[in-house]
Amino acid sequence: MGVTLDLFDSHVHLDDEAFDADRDGVLRRARAAGVGGLVTVGTSVESSRRAVALAEAHPDVYAAVAVHPHDAAAVSAEALATLALLARHPRVVAIGETGLDFYRDFAPREAQERAFRAHLALARASGLPVIVHCRDAYAEVLRVLAEEEPARVVMHCFSSSLEVARRCLDRGYYLGFGGPLTYRNARRALEVVAYVPPDRFLLETDAPYLPPEPHRGRRNEPAYLPLVARAAAAARGVAPGTVAEVASANAREAFGLTRLATRE
Fold first, then answer.
1. Which CATH number fits domain 7-262: 3.40.30.10, 3.60.120.10, 3.20.20.140, 3.90.1150.10?
2. Which residue, 104, 217, 95, is CA-closest to 156?
3. Coil, strand or helix: which one is 64?
4. Number of neighbours of residue 254 by Cβ within 10 angstroms
5. How far is residue 12's CA from residue 43's CA, in Å, rounded to a whole number?
6. Helix axes 109-126, 77-87, angle to 10 degrees
7. Are the CB atoms for 252 and 8 separated by under 8 Å?
8. Tens digit of pLDDT per residue, the chain (264 long)?
9. What angle do CA 67, 165, 260 make, to 5 degrees?
10. At 80, which helix (H) or strand (E)?
11. Cα–Cα distance for residue pair 52/15, rounded to 1 Å
12. Which of 17, 102, 164, 257 is the most exposed, fewest CB within 10 Å of its CB?
């Protein structure tokens, strides 16, 4: 595998039941692969609580809290109040993942937009960045973001065109890239990751989802992040170590980790 890279997984779901049998082993393998930090991302109130507990237990794990757009209809005032309390925890570094998913449409689109705006308001109130899930809804997501103007935006698992990427970059958003960079049909994603300025791209696994080649069809985990880094490096025409180092520095900046010590 060569030299161990300096990596940061900007989006993982460590609390997922897929990791229940060997979560400690997953973290050990990630560290052995060079993953020096992870953001574990909540998808419900209970998932967010679990994310915070994991961040409390492991110094290299940070948490993001939110209700996923699939469950937007369940975003009540009580749920938002709980998320606001969790957001005050010193190990919470983002609000997310939130956004719009018009591919699955598991929640009514009106409910998704209401929940998205409520999460963005929480991000503003807490001074935290927002991690955005977007599928088949980039026009609508960009409209809402322009109206709500959160301080920092991470576009998780960016999958749109170079034109949309330019619009995001013009606004100063970070773009996250994961396992799909390694797929055979990744031409558009590779074109985008090659274009993104050095200070605006992040690496992620979205584990246990979206495993890179050659692990497709099996559970993803953070230890596979070097495969994503190498695909990005090949597209950008630089060494994998350079991509890993730059993306890790971007993650620490995006999530305010250089300032975290002042909150603890």
1. 3.20.20.140
2. 95
3. strand
4. 24
5. 11
6. 30
7. yes
8. 467 899 999 999 999 999 999 999 999 999 999 999 999 999 999 999 999 999 999 999 999 999 999 999 999 999 999 999 999 999 999 999 999 999 999 999 999 999 999 999 999 999 999 999 999 999 999 999 999 999 999 999 999 999 999 999 999 999 999 999 999 999 999 999 999 999 999 999 999 999 999 999 999 999 999 999 999 999 999 999 999 999 999 999 999 997 664 444
9. 50
10. helix 77-87
11. 10
12. 17
CA 175/CA 139 separation, integer angstroms: 16
What residue spans define the domains of the chain? 7-262
H helix or E strand, kind and range, residue 134 = strand 130-135
What tokens does 56 get? 């409390």
- Pick the closest to residue 39 from 98, 120, 119, 94 (CA basis): 94
d(CA 219, CA 231): 19
In 3D space, the residue among 120, 135, 112 whose CA is nearest the CA of residue 83 turns out to be 120
Residue pointed to by tokens 């993650």? 251
Contact of 121 with 85, CB cutoff 8 Å: no
CA distance 163 to 134: 16
- Indicate the SS3 state at residue 36: strand
Q: Which of 19, 20, 64, 17 is nearest to 38 (CA)?
A: 64
CA gap 9, 204 in Å, rounded: 5
Distance CA 220, CA 211 (A): 4
Q: Which amino acid is at 38?
A: L
Pairing of strands 174-177, 7-12: unpaired
- Could you give the 3-state DSSP secondary structure of residue 95? strand
Q: Which two tokens stand for residue 154?
A: 């991470």
Find, among 138, 129, 185, the residue nearest to 160 by Cα. Answer: 138
